[in-house]
Write a sequence for this structure.
């Protein structure tokens, strides 16, 4: 099982279960994010930096992917969990982790469809009990939804953990060199694709100057990402502060002008 200790296995499954219950319940948006899960799994596996990098990469990939209504979409949280485990424990980087993680995320689509079908039976059984005035039993039946939700998340992770490093290594060894090179390139392109999708929803034309400043700082001056983010926060705060003061000044001027007219 990738050389993981019993405590590490329990912690990984615990994080997965918390994500499952959050996704099927309150959806706090705190833990149910690839970047957060990546950090947690990375810390459990002993490499927080790798986990953060993988989580951030898959966070960008997941931008704009939303399962609206009854639609089923790939689950990038499960992809993050599996990719981080395989990447850290195999020691071969996140490109290899993605070869296992992405299929697991795609497998979630089929599991999600099955979960929704079974949920239909659960809801009908619960409604039948309510109609018979068996309210307690009807309420208890609804908790089966959480069991199904947990299975939907835990089963793929358990399969990967049970398969272990031997199976994962066998898959990697069976890959032809051209496929390995393609996955390596894809792994480097995916974050860019995610960023492009993110920029598509942002007012880039209006704030093109700030985008250029950040790009030059990172690409040419060599400022770390955290440094660029801090400077970006400072510029954003300055912009907000100036805009707020301008509104307040205009409002005060209009008020005073109105009093003089009267």
């Amino acid at each position: 099982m990738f050389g993981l200790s019993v405590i590490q296995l329990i912690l990984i499954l615990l994080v997965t279960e918390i994500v499952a219950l959050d996704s099927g319940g309150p959806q706090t948006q705190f833990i149910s994010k690839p970047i957060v899960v990546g950090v947690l799994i990375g810390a459990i596996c002993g490499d927080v930096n790798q986990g953060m990098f993988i989580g951030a990469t898959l966070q960008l990939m997941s931008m704009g992917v939303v399962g609206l209504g009854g639609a089923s979409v790939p689950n990038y949280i499960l992809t993050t969990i599996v990719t981080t485990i395989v990447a850290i424990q195999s020691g071969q980087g996140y490109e290899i982790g993605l070869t296992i993680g992405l299929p697991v995320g795609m497998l979630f689509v089929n599991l999600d469809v099955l979960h929704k079908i079974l949920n239909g039976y659960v809801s009908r059984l619960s409604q039948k009990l309510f109609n018979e005035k068996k309210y307690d039993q009807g309420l208890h039946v609804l908790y089966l939804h959480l069991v199904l939700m947990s299975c939907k998340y835990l089963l793929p992770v358990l399969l990967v953990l049970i398969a272990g490093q031997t199976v994962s290594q066998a898959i990697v060894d069976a890959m032809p060199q051209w496929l390995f090179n393609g996955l390596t390139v894809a792994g480097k392109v995916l974050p860019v694709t995610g960023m492009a999708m993110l920029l598509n929803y942002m007012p880039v034309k209006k704030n093109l100057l700030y985008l250029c400043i950040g790009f030059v700082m990172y690409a040419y001056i060599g400022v770390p990402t955290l440094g660029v983010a801090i400077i970006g926060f400072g510029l954003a705060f300055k912009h907000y502060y100036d805009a707020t003061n301008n509104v307040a000044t205009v409002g005060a001027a209009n008020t005073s002008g109105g009093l003089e007219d009267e």
Q: What stands out?
A: The longest helix spans residues 94-131. The CA atoms of residues 232 and 238 lie 10 Å apart.
